[in-house]
Amino acid sequence: MAVKFPEGFLWGGATAANQLEGAYQEGGKGLNLADVLPGGKENRLGLLSSTGFNFEIDQSKYHYPNHEGIDFYHRYKEDIALFAEMGFKTFRMSIAWSRIFPNGDELEPNEEGLAFYDRVFDELAKHNIEPLVTIAHYETPLHLIKEYGGWRNRKLVEFFERYVTVLFNRYKGKVKYWLTFNEINGATHMPLFGLGFSPEKEETRLQDSFQGLHHQFVASAKAVQLAHEIMPDSQVGCMLIYAPVYSFDSNPENVLYAQEEARIFNNFCGDVQVRGEYPSFIDRYFRENNINIEMEDGDLELIKQGTVDFISFSYYMSRTDKKTKTPEEIGQGNLIGGVKNPFLKASDWGWEIDPIGLRIALNELYGRYQVPLFVVENGLGAYDKVEEDGSINDDYRINYLREHIKAMGEAVDDGVELMGYTAWGCIDLVSASSGEMSKRYGFIYVDRHDDGSGSLERSRKKSFFWYKNVIATNGEEL
């Protein structure tokens, strides 16, 4: 028997401005982090994991796919019409901070940038699609990175407060659902993405990362309070990357290790943003890693008063781990580490596929926090083949999504309060982790390739029609 999803369940898709908008120097926009990240898996992952990234554009050496994205900036009406055709109830998007404040530290916003998002929100409203807006999605203005050192610098709290105040005053009545920082807990793994800095040396990475996180906790709490003041009917969520951590075996040492890893990665940021306080378990971690957080008077009270209304999260994979592992045992492709799980298959990019893990994640989160949950990223990056007749038979994507939606339904039956589901990359876009177009997630195919060639024309994949029916039946027909 099919599990019934709640009435008003928010089905839709998810994107980020830096991965689809393009127009990187149009409309008064300033440069941001994504604009200096080159394409290609080897280029991007190598630079992201290195120390001392120089943040310069070198077009003689690299291709920068984010500069054009899929040209949503000029084609948003066409794309939103396709989302409406699928029946989207919601569309998760982000605002590019450097469209609103090109350098990030100006006193007055850029009107052209504000007007662009007005047009997007008006177009969504025309089709009765509720926007779900991420305020900061790996899009730190480049000036704030080069001049201030990113979120390590307390000054960014002030700049972020100015930014969100402008957004909330401008878009009140147009946007009800907001997320503060995308995948905030991933910042210690890739501080360049989340915190806007490249560690000078590995020895200071954790100290700088957790200091930057504290500044984001303060900024997020201020944003929640401002949203509730300016838009009383608004709801603001945190956004986590969530991956259940399994012990490799029943060895108590490995079980304890997996539990400790899960607490730091999955629970720390959620505890601060949902419960409003630093959890007791972090004290030992800070002590053993020589981490000392500088706080200002009133920070902890502010964090306590600025807790989020709901938890949103991305789910792509689980993690299996053991205390002692050899290099050969480490799971290839899983961005969050661990060892290979012998019970799971992996995607073309090595990400292990675990639908049951989504049900586990939902139950873990709801059991810990008892606040509404929202799955805002989940999807399969895969190679798609265009047939001679133009069709794209992506049954592998349908199968992936079907099993994950089934797992969500089971979690709802378990008693989890679930608000909605936005499949990641509902239209093909530039991969954040690899800078590739060939790693496709969408229901909608975009004729754009890794070398920058292609017409940018849109076409419907087989999964487009499947997801349309899923939404029409509120998940009863999968």
Automatic annotation (TrEMBL):
Q: Can the keyword Hydrolase be found in this entry's annotation?
A: yes
GO molecular function: any one?
Answer: 6-phospho-beta-glucosidase activity
Q: Keyword Hydrolase on this protein?
A: yes
One of the GO BP terms on file: carbohydrate catabolic process
Q: Which SUPFAM superfamilies match?
A: (Trans)glycosidases
Q: Give me the Gene Ontology terms describing cellular component.
A: cytosol
For the protein in the UniProt heading, the enzyme class is hydrolase
EC nos: 3.2.1.86
Which Pfam family is an annotated match for this chain, by its short name? Glyco_hydro_1
- Keywords recorded for this protein, A-Z: Glycosidase, Hydrolase
Q: Which family does it belong to?
A: Belongs to the glycosyl hydrolase 1 family.
PANTHER family, alphabetized:
6-PHOSPHO-BETA-GLUCOSIDASE ASCB-RELATED (PTHR10353:SF122), GLYCOSYL HYDROLASE (PTHR10353)
**What is the name listed in the Swiss-Prot or TrEMBL entry for this protein?**
6-phospho-beta-glucosidase
**Encoded by which gene?**
ascB
